[in-house]
Amino acid sequence: MTRAISQDNAVSSSRMTRALIYAVLLVFIFYYLLPLYVMVANSFKPLDEIRGGDLMALPKDWTIAPWASAWSSAQIGVEPTGLKPYFINSILIVVPAVTLSTIFGALNGYVLTKWRFKGDGLVFGMMLLSCFIPFQIVLIPGAKVLGFLGLAGTIEGLVLIHFAAGIGFSTLFFRNYYAAFPTELVKAAQIDGATFFQIFWRILLPSSAPIIVVTVIWQFTNQWNDFLFGASFSGFGSTPMTVALNNLVNSSTGVKEYNVHFAGAILAALPTLLVYIVAGKYFVRGLMAGAVKG
Amino acid sequence: MASLKIKNLHKSYSSVEVLKGIDLEIEDGGFLVLVGPSGCGKSTLLNTIAGLEDITSGEILIGGNSVAGLHPSKRDIAMVFQSYALYPNMTVAQNISFGMDIRGIDKAEQKKAIDNVSSILQIGELLDRKPSQLSGGQRQRVAMGRALVRDPQVFLFDEPLSNLDAKLRVDMRTEIKRLHARMGTTIVYVTHDQIEALTLATKIAVLKDGILQQFGTPDEVYNDPKNVFVATFMGSPSMNLIEATVADKGKNLVIEIASTDAGKIELPVKNIASLKDYIGKKVLFGIRPEALTDREGADRTSKQIAHHDCMIEVVEPAGSDTFAVVNLGGKEAIARLRADAKIVAGEHASLAFNMSKAVFFDPETTQRIR
Predict the structure, then answer these.
(1) What is the per-residue pLDDT across A192-225, written as a single tens digit (0 to 9) for each?
(2) Would strands B240-249 and B331-338 be described as parallel, antiparallel, or unpaired?
(3) What percent of chain A has pLDDT over 90?
(4) Is ATP-binding given among the entry's keywords (chain B) (predicted)?
(5) For range B42-64, the mean pLDDT
(6) Domain residues of chain B, as ranges?
(7) Which CATH superfamily groups domain B4-233?
(8) In terms of CA atoms, which chain B residue is nearest residue A193?
(9) pLDDT value for A286
(10) Which end of chain B is more exposed for a tag (fewer CB within 10 A), N or C?
(11) How far is B2 from B187, CA to CA, in rounded Å?
(12) What's the pLDDT at A160?
């Protein structure tokens, strides 16, 4: 009898907690999704409807004209090109920079854990330091180096800058991941006659999928969203998406086309969103693998 | 197949010296076991033979040729690791053939070698599985298969059985011994388990703190230990060491053990020349549990059995034997009696001391008195 009663209590109290948890979660979902809703809803409205008043309302008159304009004809600075060329610039910058910083991060992690040398701790410490240096500090040295290499204002120059800025974190990720990777495997491969790169390529890399995903997401997000380097080091032919978006929003000819601005901002955020949706579950898994065992 | 010779090997990590002048030699087809407590340098020694660690000074010869500066893959050795070190992303067959793949041996020949090894080790049905789908014993077999397929001059085993459960460990031990008998390849085997050392080896090297304590056959190491460390490390339960005084009783030397109740225990000693120097002094009297037994269980072939009444403190029946804890000279000693020996805890019983198996050590230097 008493047992039955106590069980009833347990169920109802856990239901209460559950309801509370869901309520809180729903509030947060609403809170976080509201800005996105405003952006999406207004990007499909004609400008008149926005100026007419209610930002929160759904469009009465659906139109994709703002999207088309943001993509290919809006005024960016002085040119009416839309965001398209800058989107391509961003891809040309970010894809090689992410690839390079991931590959070199993996190689660094491999050397720092499996081919220990005198002073490897110091080298790793200095690479870690590069994770925590505010990027503003490196702007002037960065400009000097790019000028010296003749890469100022070019896509290649921005690739180099992003690669250098990203390698600290990617090294940290891979080092911690490989620290938990059994060194006996490397020894066994050495006895089997595998070379430095064969061991890396055939033994370590095939087991590195989670940490590669983490690194790629991390680097892609940071580099795609970068504004500072883009604003500082890009020239006319190499301006990235973020800087172009700023120019779009701040262009002062005529009226402010809020609907086009909203559409442009969503376009700029789309690739990172996509990367998270595709690889997000690996992100958490990979972070845990590094954190628990490293 | 080849002999292995190690000459005056030193190995230091910056200021810490982990191997302090090791001299070893194992003949072609021998089974050398390196045994010692953790941190004694046995695994380091194995890694230097494999070429996975550089040596500071000294020489390693495999088949009479110095391997100084040779890459691990060029030393014609194969190694089985404690964690098995199977490549997690490859199937069993790929694990076994990885070395051949690296050396660019053609697929048909690889296939033949894999089939050969998998039939020896009975892992044929596992070839397409990944290491994560195997049990501990199966992983162990695959790791041995990867070593076997190289057909090396010397096999190196680094504590290969320590990750297995007790029963499987005994089975695999037998299997390794059978494999050695069949292949006849020289083996160097590292373990901290003295039973493994005694059962497998043709030669045992006992190490402690980077110094070779004793190098000899299992029989020598067990019955003729050079010092207290070797005597207590080998054998389970370990050798009883009791403080005793040497006395001269006419034609024979005796040792006297102070006993709590019966005054003192006196035991005759023969044929140990240097013991004369210790007359009136303290020595450590070492006797293994099986040499301290009940009257009926005493070794009839022994020429020197002494009997004495001792106080039995604890009786521990173990099925095949009965172990008794006896108070000798204020120290606990373990006696190994027949399973159905009639003894009762808290009473006196007459025990047989097989003095031909007794050994004596200098309490200061802990070295053997011969």
Answers:
(1) 999 999 999 999 998 898 889 889 999 999 999 9
(2) unpaired
(3) 58
(4) yes
(5) 93
(6) 4-233, 240-369
(7) P-loop containing nucleotide triphosphate hydrolases (3.40.50.300)
(8) B73
(9) 61
(10) C
(11) 10
(12) 95
Tokens 């043709």 appear where?
Answer: B202
- Residue B2: closest CA among B22, B23, B24, B30: B30
Do residues B34 and B46 touch, judged by C-beta distance below 8 A? yes
Question: pLDDT, tens digit, for every residue of B124-144?
Answer: 999 999 998 998 889 999 999
CATH number, span B240-369:
2.40.50.140
Residue A285 has pLDDT above 80, yes or no: no
Question: Nearest residue on chain A to B149, judged by CA atoms?
Answer: A192
Residue from the list B47, B73, B89 with its beta carbon closest to the beta carbon of A192:
B73
Tokens 């003729």 belong to residue: B224
Angle at CA of residue A167, ends A225 and A144, nearest 5°: 80
- Which CATH code is given to the segment(s) A73-293? 1.10.3720.10
8 A C-beta contact, residue A49 and residue A206: no
| CB atoms A190 and B73 under 8 Å | yes
Which segments of B3-132 does DSSP mark as H helices, in order?
42-50, 92-103, 107-121
Closest in B71, B85, B103 to A187, CB measured: B85
ipTM score assigned to the predicted complex: 0.81
Domains B4-233 and B240-369 share a fold: no
State the nearest Cα–Cα gap between B52 and chain A, in angstroms: 7
* A202 → chain B, closest CA residue: B89
Is the predicted pLDDT of residue A252 greater than 70, yes or no? no
Domain boundaries, chain A: 2-64, 73-293
Would the pLDDT of B304 be above 60?
Answer: yes
